[in-house]
Amino acid sequence: MSKEILPDNLLKEAVAKAWAIENGVYDRQEAETPEHTFSDEYRQRMERLSGGKQVDSGQAEGKTERKGYVVKNKSLRIKILLVAVIVMMLGSMTVLAAEPLREKLYQMVELLFSDHTDVSFEEVTRESDGQDQENSPGNFKVRKLTKVPSKYKKESANKDYVFLIIWNHILMKKVMRCITGWLPQRILLCRLRPMENPQRQ
Amino acid sequence: MLSLYLSEIREDQDKEKFRTIYQYYEQKMFSVAYGILQHRENAEDAVHDAFEAIMGNLDVIGNVYSSKTWGYIRVIVKNRAVKIYNQNKKRKEIQVDDFNLLDNLAGELRDIELRMEKKEISEIIAYMVLELPERYRDALYLRYYNELSYTEVAEALSMTEDNARQLTRRARKKLLEKMMERGIRYE
Questions:
Q1: How does pLDDT run across B64-122, given as a tens digit for each residue?
Q2: I need a surface site. Which of A25, B6, B133, B178 has the fewest CB within 10 A?
């Protein structure tokens, strides 16, 4: 009902007029108020508010020359930085809290700074010894797929592995061991396809 | 990278805008605050608080020198000054709802009956707007003169968005009541 009697456009017009009338009152008040010299305390607070950097300002619209303040709107950057630091701290805490991850982190440090880092863990050393033995070419084992899931069939009965990967690169070996704790010798892949009509078989 | 670059530009623009507002409106703002508080240090506090609020809402301000900008800044500084005025409680007899600077400054604004005979309807309503309490007027100015969203109105008046919405609705209702009291209908 109110909108019927007082539509928005009429209200806007009236409010604009009211503002202009009221502004006249404030203008008179301003004219009567002598120019105020702001206190040093106020200036300091404004300096802090604007980020601490004070600059000389030019004249603005006939006003007497005053000192202005540069706004250092760093709050967003600081917030982003804080969030990043918190995330990094949480991540670090998580990594360091879990023993396996902690060990892997040390191993990673050792790997990346191998020239001047020496970190050793007995278990890892033993494991490494075993793997080195296993890595010798004579120890390669050919593993065939023995169990085919129901409703699947092998792509080719004769080719039950598709390719073989041997990690020869020492860096790749170390990285893989750090990440997975497993040193891959070879990967046997057998392509399985869903059967078109499993009931037939 | 692009967003960082853009934010850098924006920051520079904001710096410049704030600097201009600071230079141009500081004395005017002090005058408004002093008119309410009649105390120089408190008026400085109000101006400082107002600048703090303005700094966080520079997006609202388009042309620094426009009357709308001054309207917005005036409402903010007035709001902060009234807040300090109430906090100090030196003049408890005057409550914020009844506080109206125009009562002290321009009694002639109230003789609406005289003006009704020769003015157009929007002007009559304008004088009725001036009869409203400060809080209602401020809400109407921000919403219908500055055309701010309720969120922005709420930030300017340091209240919740719901309160800003309610305040504007009440102001409008009050205005309507005044119109009906005087038998003014808009056809």
A1: 888 889 989 999 998 888 888 888 765 555 444 445 555 554 555 555 555 555 567 88
A2: B6
Which residues are A56's β-sheet partners?
A67
Q: Do A22 and B48 touch (CB under 8 A)?
A: no
Beta-carbon separation of A69 and B19 below 8 A? yes
Chain-wide mean pLDDT for chain A? Answer: 66
- Enter the ipTM: 0.76
pTM equals 0.53
Using an 8 Å Cβ cutoff, are A185 and A132 in contact? Answer: no
Partner-chain contact A11 B172, CB within 8 Å: yes
Residue B150 Cα distances to B77, B108, B156, B162, angstroms: 18, 32, 10, 8
Judging contacts by C-beta atoms under 8 Å, the chain A residues touching residue B34 are: 33, 36
The answer for A58, left when phi > 0, alpha when psi is -120 to 50, beta otherwise, is beta
Give me the amino acid identity at B93: E
Range list of H helices, chain A: 2-5, 8-32, 40-49, 75-97, 99-112, 122-135, 170-180
- Residue partners of A184: CB distance under 8 A and separation at least 6: A165, A167, A176
